[in-house]
Amino acid sequence: MLTWGAELDRVDIHNYKRRLELTIRNVNEASTCDENKRLILKFGDHCLAEGLSLARVEHLLRLLKVLAEMLAKASRRQTSTTSYNFSSALGVGS
């Protein structure tokens, strides 16, 4: 889903490409709803299209994954039947 442009031509001593790949895998395996996972990865695509560095995108995706898991956990405490997702929290329609 995520694509990389000219960013890969640089020397990557911190192995951000691999770190981003692991973060994407972790997002896909996160304990949150599929809609949140899709939105996180879509946001990552948008960030890369805007020219953000691999390091910045990896960091943002990792933070969003943690936030989504925290919201899911809080939502499960409130009610076990309600699914919490970013779009409803932000009031954004599909």
Care to describe what's here?
By secondary structure, the chain is mainly alpha-helical. The chain has one domain (15-90). It contains four helices and no strands. The radius of gyration is 15 Å and the shape is elongated. The mean pLDDT is 82.
Kindly list the characteristics that best describe this protein.
elongated, 94 residues, mainly alpha
Summarize the structure.
This protein is mostly helical and 94 residues long. The chain has four helices and no strands. 63% of the residues lie in helices and 0% in strands.
Q: Layout of helices and strands, plus pairs?
A:
Layout lengths: L15 H13 L5 H16 L4 H25 L7 H5 L4
**Mean pLDDT reading:** 82
Helix % is 55-70%
General form: elongated
Largest sheet descriptor: none
Q: Let me know the number of strands.
A: 0
Give the helices and strands as they follow along the chain. HHHH
Total of domains? 1
What Rg, in angstroms, do the CA atoms define? 15 Å
Q: How many H/I helices?
A: 4
Low-pLDDT runs of 5+ residues are none
Distance between the termini: 19 Å
Structural class, from secondary structure content? Answer: mainly alpha
- Report the β-strand fraction as a percent range: under 5%
